[in-house]
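thought: fold this chain, then report.
action: predict
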Amino acid sequence: MKTKSFLRSPIVWMLASVALLFTGGCAYLETKQGDWIFNPVQSEWRGYRGPPEGVEELWIPVGKSGEKIHAWWSPQPNNDAPVLLYLHGARWNLTGSVTRIPRWNRMGFSVLAIDYRGFGKSKFMDASSPTERSANEDAEAAWRFLLERNPGAKRFIFGHSLGSSMATHLAVKDKGASGLIIEGAFTSIPDMIKETKWGFLPVGFLVTQRFDILDRIGEVSIPILIAHGTSDSIVPFTLGERLFAAAKAPKRLLRAEGGTHHNLTASHFDDYQRAVAEHFGLRPHVATSASVSDMANGAAANAAVTAQ
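observation:
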């Protein structure tokens, strides 16, 4: 199974990890794992032509050192719309989600999307690499900001791929959230290593940033929707099935036949919208002709290169 986006060279990771452990570089290993897993990009995605129509750029304070995370706020015109925190996956920053965020608007959500520190315009004061802990802190800060901004709205957490780990972390902490949606989610980083051609090597014990969604998903007590493509070549569909089996809350598995790791809201939009509306008790959203036109124009402007 070909695993990319994060864990781009597992054999290099394994060899470097062993060498670092034997030379006493455990702290350095912790830092480098952030680089290897997140593979963060500061530059704009190659197909980016500007933010979606109607997006407001925001800066959200995080931590105690004056750092801030960069965010996009894409609201619905009606104040009673449900709100959704959008947590992207590894490698690409917000600009890589420019065609995906408007699809959540089309489903009826006001969307707050963030870049973790180390991605895009979100910076560390000391040029550190993102870690599981720092990304969870960023997600928590964005969630608090969203709740303060829209206190009475139904609130949902969405995570794509690696972002599913931070989304699940939030869902465990806030049992008052309205729902959790994870797409292309894996069970843990050690399990992802096993899916590579080097999976037979016993290197799981070297992983300190485990992103163990399988271990936490049973603690989620809010409704869960798990979306996964059957042709996902990055995170095998079987890992999504394992997460679904372990989930205890009211749950639903959207099995996207032929869907890949990055295209579900595009290739299976109608099924996705129906699953979201039915599972969470939301009214199916009908976009106005004007908003559909705006979104189509925005998507076309950013689709010169197929979204990763």
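thought: worth noting. The first helix runs from residue 10 to 22.
final: tokens above.
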